[in-house]
Write a sequence for this structure.
């Protein structure tokens, strides 16, 4: 076998070659360092554990990454582990608007884990986490169930997305950094702006500390109680033009009418998933948890379209009638699908066709609390305070707090949003 | 085999080596295919065989290193090279990492001596090796992977798409497979040069070929020359009269097709390419073009353009079978291509044309060079600017995530 022999001239050539390579890559390394500094400065690459610790230190602190994954399941999982809430809400993004102060004086025992559960298998996975003691059992559990979870094509049988995603942290993934850098450059964000703003700077409109680019630039992120703050621009737009706008793209009403996406039933609804769901909920009840099942609100127009649709009727019947009936047989309190009209309200209380505002969710939760068992922890909640909040002069259909008008995003970000 | 004095003994040893090597290859690669094909055949006669095929995982690169080691054995038998006692050199030759999984398929007489002799660091070759790696990486992650998205979408939904999109799909696949495979080869060869090794050139701008014979002297050169030396010539090559010549060409290409995969689509692809040779053999013009097209000129003549266009279209047609999952799908695809709306191209499919035009233009102007990024005649500033542009393109437009090389499956 030959040896790689190096004479003096070859040695010099090799050094020359290495120097050239290094010189060539210096600008690229510099660019990478700048990008990484920018990400770190705005809190995008702060570990979720650190974010949780910091959120606990402020009265309110918003967390919203823009370039990296929110690691939402991991974030919520760690929060539940840390806080061991007695009142917990689970479900998809459609329950994310439930705020802690609705449960006064029990707000410190509440956590909103909306977003963690995206299919029926996730509920079972969550029950497993409680059963093995990974997470402490709450006393009261609200679970928001979405109708598409009963579709045949929604998640592969037995596949819990929660199980797959809980322990990942994107910031250690090189490909995630590459994607983030690319988006950062494509959006033309000024590195100087990113370096000067910094994390824990004020989030727009409300002024409280924020971690992550989405939180800092748009006021979009998760609050300390786990609820989601949508960009306050939505609220300012509503104040200027107080009309219902379905902000989903395409609008939910169109998706229902065209049977697209979540509302397509090409592959049919699935009795296996229905039975699985019932079993998972029964399991939770058997653990001694006070379980309340809610079917988060649709807009009035979406609800009408769903109820009137012949093609979706068997699916809607399974979800809206059979499911509550079955849960009733098992002694699990459930609340049928609702809409603003259920509470005498109009669609201005909806963010879009299937996401209710925090004010409408307060109506929903109030209803549940009023119907709670006598020995329930929920009976300690002061209903009068919920009424005061709802009827407060500061409350508009979309939010309990109107952003102060003197706090504005800079023009460039406003245009981009 | 080298020490054996009797010819019969040497033949027996060669046969043994061939049986073991090809046997392993056939087992891993073709067992299921032959069993299922046999089952399909007997079903024609009304039998219902109860078939159990083994779910065998195909070792990565088996087709490549099997051929590489076979070339060593056969060349010893032919007394073209001496057997080596140096186990480390031999195993390094077989498993040399840059070209292990997808070639170029190296001949022992080229690569083995390089492990046995002193290598020196050559600055110019190392620099060019790095440039070649960059060029290969660009072709793979920017052009091939991005075109691959269009190709996958088109082939998965071709029954609902109009003819022009299907034609585009074929065009995109032709460029995808070229950039994917030649990109890998460039990276392998460039890495080899960085380490002081000289690997066989595998692609020489094949889409600028003027006839099919030239195409196969420019496409996957290491494989086509292997088949020429170890299948075609032993069969008799062109020394058996025109009919024999045609037979040998067709057999060689059918086996070449089969080498690519255990599917009738590859066999038909091979057969098609063999059939393309027939007019050349009849006319006695299969080795007409040995130099680059339009040498010393900026643009090709009209006739050369027509020649290149014809060869390109013929290879495009063959790629339909290569890409399709089954013969039925291939024929359906062809049938749907010939539909109305042949000249309407929806916006979402047009983006790929940028990559096609780019690669063809760059390679045209670089066709006398070893690879597309050999630009040493330009100033340092210009070169570095171009290198940065490529790196930024890879960073901004390269597909993120694992996108396997097409030829890894072979």
């Amino acid at each position: 076998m030959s040896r790689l022999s190096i004479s003096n001239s070859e040695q010099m050539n090799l050094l020359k070659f290495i120097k050239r390579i290094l010189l060539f890559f210096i600008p690229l390394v510099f660019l990478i360092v700048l990008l990484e500094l920018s990400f770190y400065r705005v809190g995008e690459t702060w570990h979720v554990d650190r974010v949780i610790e910091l959120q606990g230190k402020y009265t309110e602190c918003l967390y919203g990454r823009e370039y990296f994954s929110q690691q939402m399941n991991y974030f919520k999982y760690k929060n539940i582990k840390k806080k061991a809430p007695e009142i917990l809400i689970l479900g998809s993004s459609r329950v994310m608007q439930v705020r802690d102060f609705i449960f006064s004086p029990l707000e410190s025992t509440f956590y909103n884990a909306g977003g963690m559960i995206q299919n029926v298998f996730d509920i079972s996975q969550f029950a497993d986490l409680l059963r093995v003691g990974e997470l402490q059992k709450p006393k009261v559990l609200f679970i928001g169930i979405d109708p598409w979870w009963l579709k045949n094509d929604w998640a592969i049988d037995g596949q819990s997305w929660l199980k797959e995603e809980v322990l990942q942290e994107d910031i250690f993934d090189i490909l995630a950094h590459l994607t983030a850098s690319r988006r950062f450059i494509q959006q033309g964000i000024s590195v100087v702006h990113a370096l000067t703003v910094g994390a824990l700077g004020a989030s727009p409109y409300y002024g409280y500390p924020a971690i992550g680019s989405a939180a800092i630039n748009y006021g979009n992120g998760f609050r300390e109680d786990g609820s989601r703050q949508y960009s306050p621009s939505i609220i300012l737009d509503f104040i200027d033009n107080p009309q219902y706008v379905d902000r989903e793209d395409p609008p939910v009403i169109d998706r229902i009418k065209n049977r697209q996406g979540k509302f397509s039933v090409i592959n049919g609804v699935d009795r296996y998933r229905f039975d699985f769901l019932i079993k998972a909920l029964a399991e939770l009840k058997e653990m001694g948890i006070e379980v309340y099942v809610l079917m988060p609100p649709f807009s009035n127009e979406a609800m009408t379209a769903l109820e009137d649709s012949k093609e979706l009727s068997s699916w809607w019947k399974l979800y809206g009638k059979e499911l509550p009936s079955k849960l009733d047989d098992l002694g699990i309190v459930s609340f049928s699908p609702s809409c603003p009209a259920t509470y005498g309200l109009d669609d201005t209380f909806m963010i879009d066709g299937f996401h209710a505002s925090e004010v409408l969710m307060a109506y929903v939760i109030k209803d549940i609390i009023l119907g709670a068992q006598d020995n329930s922890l929920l009976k300690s909640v002061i209903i009068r305070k919920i009424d005061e909040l709802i009827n407060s002069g500061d409350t508009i259909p979309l939010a309990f707090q109107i952003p102060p008008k003197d706090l504005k995003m800079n023009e460039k970000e406003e245009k981009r949003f | 085999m080298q020490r054996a004095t009797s010819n019969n003994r040497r033949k027996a040893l060669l046969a043994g080596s061939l049986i073991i090597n090809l046997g392993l290859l056939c087992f891993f690669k073709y067992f299921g295919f032959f069993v299922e094909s046999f089952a399909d055949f007997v079903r024609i006669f009304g039998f219902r065989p109860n078939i159990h095929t083994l779910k065998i995982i195909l070792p990565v690169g088996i087709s490549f290193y099997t051929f590489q080691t076979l070339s060593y054995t056969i060349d010893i038998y032919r007394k073209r090279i001496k057997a080596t006692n140096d186990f480390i050199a031999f195993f390094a030759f077989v498993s040399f990492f840059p070209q292990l999984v997808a070639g170029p398929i190296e001949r022992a007489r080229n690569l083995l001596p390089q492990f046995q002799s002193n290598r020196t660091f050559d600055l110019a070759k190392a620099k060019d090796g790095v440039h070649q790696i960059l060029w290969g990486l660009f072709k793979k992650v920017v052009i091939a992977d991005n075109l691959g998205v269009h190709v996958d979408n088109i082939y998965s939904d071709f029954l609902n798409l109009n003819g022009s999109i299907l034609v585009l799909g074929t065009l995109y696949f032709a460029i995808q497979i070229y950039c994917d495979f030649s990109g890998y080869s460039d990276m392998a060869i460039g890495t080899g040069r960085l380490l002081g090794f000289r690997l066989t050139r595998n692609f020489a701008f094949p889409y600028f070929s003027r006839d099919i014979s030239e195409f196969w002297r420019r496409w996957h050169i290491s494989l086509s020359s292997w088949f020429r030396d170890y299948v075609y010539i032993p069969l008799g090559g062109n020394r058996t009269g025109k009919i024999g010549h045609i037979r040998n060409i067709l057999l060689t290409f059918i086996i070449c097709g089969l080498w690519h995969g255990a599917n009738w689509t590859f066999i038909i692809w091979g057969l098609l390419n063999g059939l393309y040779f027939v007019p050349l053999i009849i006319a006695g013009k299969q080795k007409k073009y040995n130099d680059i097209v339009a040498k010393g000129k900026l643009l090709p003549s009209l006739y050369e353009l027509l020649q290149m266009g014809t060869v390109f279209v013929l290879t495009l047609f063959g790629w339909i079978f290569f890409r399709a999952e089954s013969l039925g799908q291939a024929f359906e695809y062809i049938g749907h291509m010939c539909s109305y709306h042949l000249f309407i191209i929806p916006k979402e499919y047009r983006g790929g044309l940028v990559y096609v035009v780019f690669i063809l233009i760059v390679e045209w102007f670089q066709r006398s060079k070893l690879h597309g990024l050999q630009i040493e005649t330009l100033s340092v500033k210009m070169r570095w600017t171009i290198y940065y542009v490529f790196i930024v393109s890879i960073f901004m437009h390269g597909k993120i995530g694992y996108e396997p090389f097409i030829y890894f499956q072979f």
